[in-house]
Amino acid sequence: MSAMEVDTSSASSSSLIFDSLPYYDNDYEQDPSLKDRAEKLIAKELGKAQPQGDLHPRVPPPTTLFSGNPVLETEMKRIEAQQPFPPLDTLRYQLPGPTSSPGTQEEWTTALNNAKAQLEHQRLRQTNIALLQNYGPNAWRIHNYLLEATSKNLDKSLEELKELTVEVNRDRKNFQTRIGNQLTSLETRWTELISSVLQIEMANVALEGEMERLSKKEADLAAM
């Protein structure tokens, strides 16, 4: 019995059924021509497939990352274009004075506002450093603990999936081996029955020939 029954005359039909028992069938080893037929069928089906440039209708369209954030969207485009990161603007961290001497009131106001902004920035940095020193180590330990717990859960799930996969493959192998043995027994029985039918047909042909010979002999005797 063939591992893959294919009706080549209706290859374009959508009702084709490809069935095999990979743990039992060894048709490729017994008949290498089956491999050539299978490869031709695969090449034929691939030829009917859509071009590589067209996606399958079920594949969702590509998504645009950070479409709601212009800053991140611009940064993503820069990374995709492999452009270097722009240098940091250090002018914002400086305290430039008025460019003219003695300076206008507007220039002094701008310099004063810049100094206030720098002072507020340094104050916030000190506050963040103090908070990090007080609560940072514990927060980091809790974060690491959560990461370790998540990693253990994922490893456990992975092991369970591996065991389930092995169990499924084992069940498939046992099922296919059992069904394969039944197929072998049925095929052997079918061969024996076909052989018996052929022997009976040959015996019938011989018997008909004998009956025809006897009938002819009887007719010859009657004629005498």
- SSE class: mainly alpha
Please give the alpha-carbon distance between the first and last residues: 59 Å
Sketch the topology as an H/E string, one letter per element. Answer: HHHH
- How many strands, which pairing sense, and closed or not: the largest β-sheet? none
What is the 3D form? elongated
Count of helical segments? 4
Mean pLDDT: 84
Percent range for β-strand residues: under 5%
Radius of gyration equals 43 Å
**Can you give the helix content as a percent range?**
55-70%
Low-confidence stretches: 1-14
Q: How many DSSP-defined strands?
A: 0
Topology (elements, then pairings):
Elements: H1 27-30, H2 33-48, H3 70-80, H4 105-223
Describe this structure in words.
The protein has 4 helices and no strands. The protein is an all-alpha fold. The protein has a domain at 1-86. The chain is 67% helix and 0% strand. 0% of the residues are buried. The protein has helices at residues 27-30, 33-48, 70-80, 105-223. It is elongated, with a radius of gyration of 43 Å. The longest helix has 119 residues, at 105-223. Its main location: nucleus. This is Pre-mRNA-splicing factor SPF27. One of its GO terms (cellular component) is Prp19 complex. Belongs to the SPF27 family. It is found in: Nucleus.
